[in-house]
Design a protein that fits this description.
Number of strands: 8
Radius of gyration: 19 Å
CATH class of the largest domain: Alpha Beta
Largest sheet: 8 strands, mixed
Strand order of the largest sheet: 1-2-4-3-5-6-7-8
Order of helices and strands: EEEHEHEHEHHHHHHEHEH
Strand content: 15-25%
CATH topology of the largest domain: Rossmann fold
Length: about 325
């Protein structure tokens, strides 16, 4: 069944203390007695949007949503340069999901993730396969170093003008190595002007490479300087450390992902080429990949395929 077209108010909300001085915002939508499913947003640092709640507000489903550490309504916010990111890693986020599942009295759930959220969903499922009855992944990424090299450097061959501006913002001595870490250092500067300029440059590059779909428009959330700083700070923190996952993590843990896996991906997604879910589908025993021919990294072109995937999972 398709998601609701209007945005409902959450059925219930709360803040969960997960330790390390972190409070996570969570909410629920959909049917209280429905099949539990948790939504993992992208970024890292993208946070929840009304569109996410609409997507999870489905008959037969109990939608659980959260703002991951450092973003949205969770505290402390990465928008504050003083916020410690050493306790914001993939392992921390995986542990947070377990705490939330237990706090909401859920035995197992379907894990739904988009973009970075698909990487986190895979990491969580590999760590706790007994708690995941299915995966629904959109705009699929796996956090492998080869994907980070692609998105920060190699894809510049497709967008040379934007890439020259992106890498040209860095000091000359920082342009040959780990570009995400180089930006992370600028974003940690004591100079607010340096931080703000780095956030603008990073987000301009994000907008440049995210899609080849006709009619695509830049993300208006980047017009908010506070969000742009928060987002760029968290993304560079994760990408600069290979998403805190070892190389080949998904390949080495594929044997643990025996649950049904539905994947939806846009043909025009140049940030994460369709070859990523294609190879993943071949490695997993119960995976199905649906390609939206008119979609990029996100967008309405994926909606019908997402609806169909939710319906197949609910039907069992």
């Amino acid at each position: 069944m398709a998601a609701a077209t209007s945005t409902p108010e959450p059925r219930v909300t709360g803040m969960l203390d997960v330790g390390d001085g972190q409070l996570l915002y969570w909410e629920e939508t959909g049917d209280e007695g429905g099949r539990p499913a948790v939504w993992l947003h992208g970024g890292p640092g993208g946070g929840l949007t009304p569109g996410h709640r609409r997507m999870m507000n489905r008959h037969g489903w109990r939608g659980v949503l959260l703002d991951q550490r450092g973003c949205g309504r969770s505290t402390p916010s990465a928008a504050d340069p003083a916020t410690d990111l050493s306790v914001n890693t993939t392992a921390h986020l995986v542990a947070d999901l377990e705490r939330l599942r237990e706090a909401r009295g859920i035995e197992s759930w379907t894990v739904v993730g988009g973009s970075w959220g698909s990487t986190l969903a895979i990491a969580y499922a590999a760590a706790h396969p007994e708690r995941v009855d299915a995966l629904l992944l959109m705009s699929v990424t796996t956090g492998d170093p080869s994907e980070i090299e692609w998105i920060t450097r190699t894809v510049g061959r497709v967008f040379p003008e934007a890439w020259d501006a992106f890498v040209g913002h860095l000091p000359p001595g920082e342009r040959e190595g780990n570009l995400a870490l180089a930006y992370s250092r600028l974003l940690a500067s004591a100079d607010a002007g340096v931080r703000s300029a780095a956030a603008r440059a990073w987000c301009a590059w994000e907008d440049a490479h995210v899609s080849l779909a006709p009619g695509w428009e830049p993300w208006d959330r980047f017009e908010d300087p506070e969000f742009a700083y928060l987002f760029s700070r968290l993304v560079t923190h994760y990408w600069g450390h290979d998403c805190f996952l070892p190389p080949g993590y998904v390949r080495d843990h594929a044997h643990r992902l025996t649950m049904p896996v539905e994947m939806v991906h846009g043909r025009h997604d140049v940030s994460g080429p369709v070859g990523i879910p294609w190879e993943l589908a071949k490695a997993l025993p119960h995976a199905r990949l649906a390609v939206a021919e008119d979609a990029g990294h996100s967008g309405p072109g994926q909606a019908a395929l997402i609806d169909a995937a939710f319906d197949r999972l609910l039907a069992g």
